[in-house]
Amino acid sequence: MMNERPHLPLFQRSRLNRMASSFQIAGVQLDIAIGEVQRNLARIESALRETAKHGARLTVFPECALTGYCFESLAEARPFAEPIPGPSAQRLSQVCRELDVFAVYGLLEADGERLFNAAVLIGPSGVVASYRKVHLPYLGIDMFTTPGDRPFAVSRAGELRLGMNICYDGAFPEAARVMALDGADLIALPTNWPPGAECTADFVINTRAMENHVYYAAVNRVGTERGFRFIGKSKICGPSGCVLAEAPHQDEAILYAEIDLELARRKRVIRVPGKHEIDRFADRRPEMYGRIAASG
Fold it and tell me: Does the annotation count 133 as an active-site position?
């Protein structure tokens, strides 16, 4: 259940009880204005200062949080794209340096003639890593962007090991599994879920967390953009698949959760010692999975 903080009027808040050994994260469910980069950037910065004030070491923002999503052509979207690092990364790096925090946010990345739906991890030292969306639905700007051309990877945000996907990537279990095998404690999923994605929001996020024994933070947007309504329902799940924090359908919100890095790394789960123990990595049978990697 979300707990209101009356002295913070812009957002509803949710937070988990603190753990003894923890790393606090936040997810910011925003309403984003298409093409209004400076307005969106200012709101990202404001929210980042807010989450830092409440102890979040990492804050995750939605897909295309900087630009908006429902562009109708490559030509229309291109003026709002930037390289990585670029102006927004420079500005948010200064904020992260000042606050000693990390942030993940979505943007359109310009790379020569190519345009990518991207996410960037920013920290006190600047750009730590970036990710280009691999799986592209026939929707919004993804109809015109280039598919991601880099392997799934795990990066460091302080002591946290972080993997990044974007929206539709979350529907492909292989993406999260690769990063979990490479040591991810947390997978961040900036997303723009429209109607039709309710099942993903309600069940898939929990499943990705549980099947990989990792934390999983899916951060969606709200509002309406060119006829598409976005459903909110951002969620942070723990390694058992349990919900640590979730947002409402229609409202802007900030979610907070304390995550235990050692719990994510301890893959063997002992439910009844000597009688009921599982290890979702040690119990794998990769030799039986060859068909997954075959095309066609």
Answer: yes
267 is catalytic: no
Catalytic residue of the set 64, 109, 133, 237: 133
Examine the residue annotation and report whether 63 is marked as an active-site residue of this protein.
yes
> Look-up: residue for tokens 């539709």?
168
Name the catalytic one among 70, 96, 167, 237.
167
Assigned token pair, 3: 């707990």
- pLDDT tens, position by position, 223-252: 999 989 999 999 999 999 999 999 988 899
d(CA 48, CA 57): 10
CATH superfamily for domain 12-293: Carbon-nitrogen hydrolase (3.60.110.10)
> For residue 238, with 0-12 CB atoms within 10 Å meaning exposed, 13-18 middle and 19 or more buried, which class applies?
buried
pLDDT tens digits, 156-200: 999 999 999 999 999 999 999 999 999 999 999 999 999 999 999
